[in-house]
Design a protein that fits this description.
The protein is an alpha+beta fold. The chain has helices at 3-24, 29-32, 43-65, 89-94, 100-119, 123-126, 139-161, 172-186, 238-245, 251-257, 266-275; strands at 129-130, 137-138, 197-203, 209-215, 220-224, 232-235, 261-264. The chain contains eleven helices and seven strands. α1 (3-24) runs parallel beside α7 (139-161), α3 runs parallel beside α5 and α8 (172-186) packs parallel to α9. The longest helix has 23 residues, at 43-65.
């Protein structure tokens, strides 16, 4: 992997963790225990999950660098076709005893350790296979998925307190690169909805995306936008494109709030959230 690419990944992880830490530093006690936009999760729950994840990412990458891409003790690969489950807010609460400020210090400490590990990786290390429950990935690909976790859960926390919260420009290139993999996991085939349907994404900045998703019922295809007529054209910023693709925005409410505009069928537009489910 090129040094510039690995540096961008490290800078994205470090920057996102730093921005989230700075935001959380100003919270008072009642806010820490308030709900985030992750259903059933408080802000403390989400941060506990992210703090625990940081140490897990570091351990998994360290094993990969040492030549071990297999599951950790007690872990396993997911069976083919299984989406996998996400931890619950209740599980996060049961696995911790720390309060908000203590969790924040843990989050900062563990991300500092992760950053130190990443900065010591060689170009060769970034290409080594690394365990992920859906199948081994290069260390660079594994870290990209963890950037996704940090970016989206950070937004979940901030949006619960500020409905104008946006993603940082710095994370957008990495997040756009992750969209194809996410869609493969999020697609829900075989729904009783009108097909075929062509969704077009007209995203000009900060990172341009001009792509169609052609859904045929049991499958879909991603292709560059062309001259073919689209059933729905989504127009938005790159940040809101990411939030839509990763299931954080519902089409109807995003249009009402001004985050998204469409051309074409409003019913087909709303069906996008059914075809590609967040989880």
């Amino acid at each position: 992997m090129a040094t510039s690419q690995s540096s961008n990944l490290v800078n994205t992880v470090t920057g996102e963790a730093s921005r989230l830490g700075a935001f959380l530093s100003g919270l008072d006690t009642p806010t820490w225990v308030s709900d985030s936009t992750c259903e059933g999760w408080t802000i403390e729950d989400v941060l506990a999950h992210l703090a625990g994840s940081a140490s897990g990412w570091a351990a998994t990458i360290a094993r990969a660098v040492a030549g071990d891409a297999g599951p950790p003790e007690g872990g396993s690969f997911l069976p083919a076709g299984e989406r996998g489950s996400h931890p619950t807010g209740q599980a996060a609460r049961e696995s911790r005893q720390q309060s908000g400020p203590e969790l924040l210090e843990m989050f900062k400490t563990r991300h500092a350790s992760l950053s130190q590990l990443l900065e010591g990786l060689t170009d060769e290390d970034w290409d080594k296979p690394c365990f992920h429950r859906r199948g081994a990935l290069p260390v660079s690909g594994y870290l990209g998925i963890q950037i996704q976790e940090l970016v989206l859960h950070g937004w979940d926390i901030r949006w619960g307190l500020d409905d104008g919260a946006e993603l940082s420009d710095e994370c957008l290139p990495a997040m756009v690169d992750l969209v194809p993999r996410w869609l493969r996991n999020a697609f829900a085939p075989g729904l009783d909805l009108p097909t075929p349907v062509r969704y077009r994404f007209d995203v000009s900045s900060p990172v341009a995306v001009h792509e169609d998703l052609l859904v045929t019922g049991d499958s879909y295809e991603a292709v560059p936008s062309g001259s073919e007529p689209a059933d729905v054209v989504f127009e938005c910023s790159t940040g809101n494109y990411i939030l839509l693709m990763f299931g954080r925005l519902k089409v109807e409410s995003a249009i009402a709030s001004g985050r998204l505009s469409i051309q074409g069928s409003s019913e087909q537009a709303k069906n996008f959230n059914a075809w590609f489910k967040g989880f």
